[in-house]
Amino acid sequence: MTDVIFTIFRKEMMDILRDRKTIMAGIILPVIFLPLSFILIGNDISADSDLSRKINISFSAKADGVKKLLSNSGKFNLVEGNWEENLVSGKIHIALTHVQEGDLILIDSRRTESIKASAVVAEYLDALYSKNNSKAEKRIGQKFMFGGGAERSFLSSLFPVIIAVFCAVAPLSAASDLFAGEKERSTIEPLFATPAGRFQILAAKYFAVSCIGIFQSFSFILGLFLSYAVSPEIFGKNFPFGALDILFIIISIIVLTALFASAEVIISSYAKSSREAQTLSIPFLMIVSFSAYHVMFLEVPFGAGKEIFIPVIGNIYALKSVLTGIYSSGEIFISFFVSCFYSFVFLFIAYIIFRRERMIFRS
């Protein structure tokens, strides 16, 4: 059975790779345009200091001096209690302490509001110390807690959306051609007449669609590394991801692409033509986009919970956790398992369609 699957898989891969437009649009262009987009972004990445409410701040025992200064301002809410517990629980935006070099702002890098608040407080203190001619004695430093810093915060808010949409779009063309396209060309009937079973045909075509989608998705990763070479200010002075982070990112892309490919196989199996398959895929792509944008506004780790078990949302949230630098390996593997489970469910539905010729050859 595996020989039959491999033979069909090889045939489908050769047919896809002969199409130069597919190679250009899906693999080469992302490698070119992603670095160009980061060149345009350039140095425009900065903390937005426009907060919709007062900034909540806690202080360490060593920060009595700066506490007295900020207590006279109506811009800030001074929250009592252990600063670390308050920061971990999300009760405050930032914490302030004092070290030998001066005041130190402690930032929760999991939350964009914390990063924005630090910019506001740093600017306020800088102006205050300059006015009092004590800037040299009160140098303001910043320290990111619970994560990888501002660079990771930026990447974790933007990249999950881009990666999710790209992983959904990447296998769409191949899925439309290998299933609905076969009906248009009237080549699916001879394929069904071969000794290969319906399951073998479905499995071979699904593997081909997934491989093409994964190849195109990895072009995105290649573009990411080229972006770092071209515009390293996006990632700060040092590349913020370790080997384990990169491994989880790669696995997330593979799992996401395989999940989307299985859903697109259902759509294409049911569609009468490639055009209908692409039309029917629009609601699916909208669901993916809405899911990605929903995760974009979830703060890590405060947005976790049952959402980790929801297809698409759980996997995108796990990817965001990895990009943020704050994640549990257990939750990551749960999201992978859930996505694989749904992939099998979608393939089973596609197999049911494949077994019913009145659905395959519907008029």
Brief sketch in words of this structure:
The chain has 363 residues and is an alpha/beta fold. The chain contains 14 helices and five strands.
What report would you give on this structure?
The protein is elongated. The protein is 66% helix and 7% strand. It has helices at 2-17, 20-41, 64-71, 83-89, 112-131, 150-169, 172-184, 188-192, 198-230, 243-270, 274-296, 313-324, 329-355, 357-360, and strands at 55-59, 76-78, 94-99, 102-108, 141-145. The chain has a 5-stranded mixed beta sheet, sandwiched between helices. It starts with a helix and ends with a helix. The chain folds into 2 domains: 2-44 and 150-360, no CATH class; 55-145, no CATH class. The protein is an alpha/beta fold and 363 residues long.
Helical proportion, percent range = 55-70%
Element pattern in H and E: HHEHEHEEHEHHHHHHHHH
Strands, count: 5
Low-confidence stretches: 40-50
- Sketch the major β-sheet: 5 strands, mixed
Give the percentage of residues in beta strands.
5-15%
Overall radius of gyration: 26 Å
Given the structure, what is the number of helices?
Answer: 14
Mean of residue pLDDT values: 75
List keywords for this structure.
363 residues, alpha/beta, 2 domains, 5-stranded mixed beta sheet, 14 helices, 5 strands, elongated
Task: Show the helix and strand layout.
Blueprint: H1 2-17, H2 20-41, E1 55-59, H3 64-71, E2 76-78, H4 83-89, E3 94-99, E4 102-108, H5 112-131, E5 141-145, H6 150-169, H7 172-184, H8 188-192, H9 198-230, H10 243-270, H11 274-296, H12 313-324, H13 329-355, H14 357-360
Helix pairs in contact: 1-9, 2-9, 6-9, 6-10, 6-11, 6-12, 7-9, 7-10, 7-11, 9-10, 10-11, 10-12, 10-13, 11-12, 12-13
